[in-house]
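**User:**
My hope is that you can spare some time for a protein that puzzles me. This is the protein in question:
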Amino acid sequence: MSIEIERKFLLLDESWRHDVERSESLAQGYLVGAQALRNGSARASVRARLAGEQAWLNIKAATPGIARTEFDYPIPVDDASTLLATLCDGVVEKVRHHVQVDGVLFEIDEFHGDNEGLLVAEVELPAIDAAFPHPPWLGREVSALTRYYNVNLIEHPYRQWTPVERAAEDAAC
């Protein structure tokens, strides 16, 4: 069993861009998604992810918070493409930028399509209480806000958020 410990943050500015080591385009869609999770008929999200010539099937526990059970299985690229095109209710498109800070990897997701304008930095940690650097571009933590989960960005994309919704979610941090 694999436990992913991940913290998510909004970004204060774009100064991180000069430290990008590499970037990759990602597309991911959910076979079991937000609606099933919300109505209680699913205990996990199930997604297909495509990144260039690599693809995965991912199963993640539907529990909020920074530590969740997660399984990743490589699948053929053609299978992922078919899953995304035919069985997913929508697809999240983003570019993932890899930035190292003091030996710690930050993955910065720059969303496109209906989520254009959203930038989120994620850092995976070895333990819930593990220390990690806080570069000057790292902003408000949104790890506990399910609105920022990719599965929810398909059903209620960032471009549809009202200023009131953004303020209410941010105040909860």
Remarks:
- DSSP finds four helices and nine strands in the chain.
